[in-house]
Amino acid sequence: MPSYDSIVYLSCSSEFSFILFFTCISVLIGFVIALRYNRETVFSTLPVVNKPILGSLFAIVAQWKFIDQSKALVEAGQKHHPGKPFRLWTDWGEVLMLTPNYAHKIRNDPRLSFTKAVSFDGHANIPGFETVKLISNGDNLIQLVARKQLTRHLTAVIRPLSSVTEEALIKNLGQSSEWIEVNLKSAILDIIARLSSRIYFGELLYQNEEWLSVVKNYASLFFTASTDLRKIPWIFRPFAHWFVPSCQAIRHERSNARRILRPYLDQRKSLKENARLAHTSPPKFEDAIEWAETEAKNNGSTYDPATFQLTLSLLAIHTTYDLLEMCMIDLARSPGCVEDLRNEILNVLRKEGWTKHALYNMKLLDSAIKESQRLKPGSITSMRRYATSDIHLDGGIVLRKGGRLNVLTLHRSPDLYSSPDTYDPYRFYNMRSLPGKENWAQLVSTSVEHMGFGHGEHSCPGRFFAANEIKVALAHILVKYDWKLQDETGLKTETKGMIEKAGGKVKILVRRRANTDRVVDAI
Q1: Which end of the chain has fewer CB within 10 Å, C or N?
Q2: In angstroms, what CA-CA distances link 396 with 106, 385, 388, 391?
Q3: Number of separate domains in the chain
Q4: Is 364 in contact with 478 (CB distance < 8 Å)?
Q5: InterPro entries given for it (predicted)?
Q6: Is 482 strand, coil or helix?
Q7: CA-based radius of gyration for the chain
Q8: Please, what is the angle between helix 184-200 and helix 154-173, to 10°?
Q9: Cα 317 from Cα 328, distance rounded (Å)
Q10: H-helix or E-strand containing 407?
């Protein structure tokens, strides 16, 4: 199996010439694209931050620049048009950027579809991106499993998560009492992949190194492949994807997933059939494959188990490892609360053990994580939507069918947060003591003021599991390890379009703490 590094090298060496080739062809048939883009825009009275040079015929150039300069462009829009909507040419096309005061009004509007936005942005009909097609499928299988089954089993999965964490930490952070160097992203990615696989596929696959390699590679390559494909004019993508190295790579990982899962699925099917023939109770599997089978049967729908597993892993790993990595960076740069966190964790576990209520009572831990998400959420904007019909918005804005919008966030607003650019792990802990803020200040709560998990009907359905997973992992790490940044290298976040991630080159020095309280390992 080719390594992730070799795939990235191949992609970098050939990507530019390939994209340039198709772009040159696009100019030759520019008239076709002009017909698409030169129509009067649906919000033509609003200012455009990055207006394409020489007209919308050359919008592809503005879209390329947005991929690398998105954060600066969004900030420029907010600076030059404070408190007002504006337009951006993005790698998703032309997007209406709404101010946060629109968020609550549109959050549950059925005419604004998140799944259709994901489908168009994520190349749902292109081979290799079947995970996107599953997310945007009308049967809502992923959403049902996340909202219904996974949330229902939250209490049951906490102890299995804790039991797997120690093994994952030793493999990635070691047991040395001396300082050792670790690439933080690689370590956290592997830890979360193991924890997620333990819950999603029981005890069968979380120790299978080949399977873990597949889910990690797919999660890492997916966003690269999505961005690479958006650099190519839309009209060529259904053909061009066959030649884009990163797209070839995610198809390869999808094939690997199907191959690895097949014997496990056949074994489960055989056990169930044998029980049926013997007129005995069928075996019970408390994992996501079983939950998906149950929901699909209830809906009368079908699905591909490998695609389903990759989709769950993609959603869980992308959201969770990035937030956990960012939280460890923030705590390394502001270690003053680490002892308070350790004391809270140990005191709660001594009283309650690994329970759902115990995680709820780790309020400072909850606050520290939410503060990291406030400073660096997974996306630089929130609430991306696709209009399924014409919509009249406040201010006389008419968003026509097929139009796109995103909502700006208030995460660094000085009107809401004192010292908004400073990491304060106590910020939301203190807010929870204010009348009416107990629920609002929790990590899993969404609001106009904090849209790290989105807001409204389409807020992240797996955020409750993700929050518990991060808390369990970080609790173990805090109690068992000391860590510090080796230097400032790689601390700058990595942004591609609307997606922002913690740096991939961050290195830490880590050591195992002596005589740690074993209550954290109690099952």
Answers
A1: C
A2: 15, 19, 19, 10
A3: 1
A4: no
A5: Cyt_P450, Cyt_P450_CS, Cyt_P450_E_grp-IV, Cyt_P450_sf
A6: strand
A7: 23
A8: 140
A9: 16
A10: strand 404-407
Which residue type is seen at 400?
Answer: R
CA distance 381 to 364: 26
Residue 369 · residue 467 · CB < 8 Å = yes
Two structure tokens written together for 47: 């200012």
| CA 165 – CA 320 distance, rounded (Å) | 14
Cα-to-chain-centroid distance, residue 256: 22
By mean pLDDT, which of 21-25, 270-274, 331-335, 394-398 is the weakest? 21-25
CATH of the domain at 436: 1.10.630.10
Query: Could you give the CA distance from residue 297 to residue 506 in angstroms, rounded to a whole number?
Result: 45
Residue 9 pLDDT exceeds 70: no
Phi, psi (5° rounding) for residue 459?
-65, 155
- Of the candidates 246, 353, 214, 219, the residue with the CA atom closest to the CA atom of residue 13: 246
123: closest CA among 255, 236, 7, 39? 236
The answer to whether 460 is a known ligand-binding residue is: yes
Rounded Cα distance, 89 and 62, in Å: 6
Q: pLDDT digit string (tens) for 92-138?
A: 989 999 999 999 999 999 999 999 999 988 999 999 999 999 988 87
What percentage of the chain carries pLDDT values higher than 70?
90
Q: How many CB atoms lie within 10 A of CB 105?
A: 13
Of 426, 331, 416, 412, nearest to 377 by C-alpha is 412
pLDDT for the residue numbered 38:
44
Secondary structure E strands in 114-267: 180-183
Higher pLDDT, 44 or 250: 250
Residue in the structure block whose two tokens are 């020095």: 509
How far CA 371 is from CA of 186, 330, 374, 442, 461, in Å, comes to 23, 9, 5, 10, 20
**391-392 and 398-399: which strand pairing?**
antiparallel
Closest CA relative to residue 384, chosen from 28, 161, 119, 41? 119
* pLDDT confidence bin for 57, thresholds 50/70/90: low
Higher local confidence (pLDDT), 520 or 348: 348
- Which residues form the domain of 308? 4-521
HEC-encoded secondary structure of 268-282: HHHHHHHHHHCCCCC
Give one DSSP letter per residue of 255-309, joined into a string: HHHHHHHHHHHHHHHHHHHHHHHTT-PPP---SHHHHHHHHHHHHT----HHHHH
The rounded distance, in Å, linking the Cα atoms of 443 and 465 is: 12
Q: Per this entry, what is the length of the chain?
A: 523
SS3 annotation, 32-79? HHHHHHCCCCCCCCCCECCCCCCCHHHHHHHHHHHHHHHHHHHHHHHH
pTM: predicted TM-score of the whole model, two decimal places: 0.90
- Let me know if 55 is exposed, middle or buried by CB neighbors in 10 A (0-12, 13-18, 19+): exposed
- At residue 34's C-alpha, the angle toward residues 29 and 36, to 5°, is 110
Predicted confidence at residue 462, as pLDDT, reads 87
Q: Given a cut of 70, is residue 19 above it in pLDDT?
A: no
Q: Give dist(CA 298, CA 274) in Å, integer.
A: 23
